[in-house]
Thiamine transport system permease protein ThiP
Amino acid sequence: MNNRFSTTLPGVFSAGLILLLVISAITALISQASELNPFLIWQDPYLRHVTVFSFTQAFLSTVLSLIPAIPIAYALSRRQFVGRNLLLRLFAMTLVLPVLVAVFGLLAIYGKSGLLAELFGLIDQPLPFSIYGLNGILLAHVFLNLPLATRLLLQSLEGIPAEQHKLAAHLGLTGWNKFRFIAWPRLRQQMPHVIGLVFMLCFTSFAVIMSLGGGPKATTIELAIYQALRYDFDLAAGAILAIWQMLICCSLVLFTQRFTKPLSTLSGSIEQSPQNYTDSKYEKIWDGFWISCVLLLVIPPLLAVVGAGLNSQLFQQLSQPALWQAVTNSLKIAMLACFFATSAGIAILLASRHWRIQQQKFKADGIELLGTMILVTPSLVLSTGIFLLLRQYTDVFATAFWVVVTVNALMALPYVIKTLSQPMLHVAQQYNPLCHSLGMSGLSRLKLVEWRALRKPIAQALAIGFVLSLGDLGAIALFGSQDFQTLPLYLFQLLGSYQMDAAAVAALLLLLLSLGLFSLVEYALISRPKTQNSHRNPFKSSKAGRR
């Protein structure tokens, strides 16, 4: 009983603390919104426009991201080429790529002084479009979410057993018929989940809208909250908008879950590399076209960030104390946030896996839901509530550092839980009987079983939490000042003042810090095969180590 209590207590405490913080923040919002009638949202033309535009840009971004993702994922599932693994790793990194780095790269290619503008200038023609406004928002969202959607759909296609491909070849299914009967049923199961995820990411987007919005006509609910609090100091308007956004996000999640079904398990062997048992010249051209399109979308902006950062002001900017102070603040916040997020995530999952093994599914689902409820509470909404809550008792800006750490940790927590939930459950299911028979618990089990088996997913969770916190602009945009800046805020201010060379250096530094750390963790894990073996059998690895 004591062991069971000690297993679940940290998780219950962590989940309770999160729930208390969110409820307190919402209560603070409601107390400020009492003087504002919620129905005024539809009576105020500006707020009505903001709501409609939020849905419009999210819908268009989702459509433009999902439609090309289907043929791209299908092409990648059928083709093996040099650099394919690198491309897929790059797709995975878009989830943790700092948004402002992506924005800077897109400006370097599609901006008024970008590469395309220079090419049009050679023929004395102006750039036929502006990257600011809806055009830029859609472009940035497609750049960030198309690779993510492609990666998720590709995972579904890779789950099709090889026997189905062989059977399709035997039956003479090619081209459209093979896609219709083999690939599409698998994609159709995954589509609601991908659509919901991409729509939610676009609907709650903040840094993209803030950087490329281009005025009142291109403002979303999230940006309207920021403007109400930061510039107008209209607490009631900010509160009602925050609550309105939370209600919309919760409705979107429930609507998505209504149509989302778990992927069915198909019997048969899974191929480790793409196999195309029926092929033709036209299929090769079709697949090559879509792969080339995604390469042209993703690669040039990232190369532009690197090229623009290596400018004549590189060493001058690297000697700026303000830059390194921002870097120091970012690293401190990211390290603390990822540590808190990973610790809370492990505590919650220890409790949930204990209840799952005890067949108490309701408790397990409930505590994991509390840990991931931040997904429907965008960082700016949470920051708004904390701001209103703390201002009653203390100087908010004096505690800005810890507020930003807390918000970033909470925003990273759902990703930590998603990364660790299945590995931790599988370890418990596999080794619990043996540990009980050996009387192994506490630190000995942690050292010999848990750490050896979970070192890789824990490192991935830490890396994801670190990079997400490093590139976040949501909380710091509300609490930042001249005396307290992070690297994303520093970069945003340089972009806002059109100091493009200095901004290029900051963007390059942020890119190297983010992707460099993420790649370093992956490389360190991949280059250690003994670690992978220990993941399969930690007891065997322990014996070998003692010999």
